[in-house]
Design a protein that fits this description.
alpha+beta, Cathepsin B, Chain A, seven-stranded antiparallel sheet, 5 helices, 20 strands, EC 3.4.19.12
Length: 268
């Protein structure tokens, strides 16, 4: 007679917030778990929300049921193949959409609740990133590598970015106007930090260079597109080879790092 189902195997959530997040196989709805909800929120864009589960068998029970198999080949169902095919289909987004996601307010999972110092009750809070100040030279590093469980994959999503007139104003946090730009305070007893009223408020940027990465995680090659400040034309730099390119060819799926300059800044 077989043992109870709880002794046959354990279900582990791979890539979860905890390295050993186990689900109960005896639960009629084992996926209704806060760890599953958090993993779905962190699955990212580029495909349907998904999680990866690992079934850890008791070796003696496994060998008794399936034989002593050193290497097992499991054929994926047709639905899995279709989902993988849809996930590999290349899609595109804009740089503005990337900033919107970067500064989007997110609600923390229930297992990340913080304890209120006043009422002493755990509260499910929110987290939000904001841009407080912007430099004369803005360097944007696109995330081209994604961690999925124990594996890393290169992302080839086409990010459409403007060559001129990148407006960063919608992504800068709102601050007080009187007496300069309000930067906030580190503690309740400290006065708010402010920038002087003369601080530039022009948030328009123009692209002057792009670093491209070609290849995969195992190996690759770097090239660059740069705009000549003297003639205003774009050029491709590939090792010792330099040639002119059209503006329409600057934005590609290989773009990795973008270099912008504030329009009202003075070149060195």
């Amino acid at each position: 007679p077989l043992q109870g189902p709880g002794a046959l195997f354990r279900i582990r959530l791979a890539g979860g917030s905890s390295p050993w997040t186990y689900l109960s196989p005896q639960d009629p709805r084992p996926l209704c778990h806060p760890a599953i909800d958090r993993a779905l929120q962190l699955s990212g864009a580029g495909g349907p929300p998904h999680v990866k589960l690992t079934v850890e068998w008791d070796m003696s029970t496994k060998e008794r049921l399936f034989g002593n198999i050193q290497e097992e080949v499991v054929q994926d169902a047709e639905s899995v193949r279709l989902q993988q095919q849809a996930h590999r289909q290349q899609h595109s987004c804009t740089l503005d959409e990337c900033f919107q996601l970067y500064t989007k307010e997110e609600q923390l999972a229930p297992d990340d609740a913080w304890r209120c110092p006043h009422c002493k009750v755990p509260q499910q809070g929110t987290v939000k990133l904001s841009l407080w100040t912007l430099p004369d030279i803005l360097i944007i590093h696109l995330k081209r590598f994604r961690q999925v469980a124990e594996h890393r994959h290169k992302l080839t999503t086409l990010v459409r970015f403007p060559l001129r007139g990148l407006d960063m104003a919608p992504h800068v946090a709102q601050r007080g106007q009187a007496g300069g730009q309000l930067l906030g305070r580190w503690a309740p007893w400290q006065p708010p930090l402010r920038l002087p009223p003369s601080c530039p408020r022009d948030y328009l940027y123009d692209l002057y260079a792009v670093c491209n990465h070609h290849g995969s995680m195992q190996g690759g090659h770097y090239t660059a597109y740069c705009c000549n400040a003297l003639d205003g034309r774009w050029y491709s730099y590939d090792d010792s080879r330099v040639e002119g390119v059209r503006e329409a060819e600057v934005s590609t799926r290989s773009a990795y790092i973008l270099f912008y300059q504030r329009r009202d800044s003075v070149s060195a």
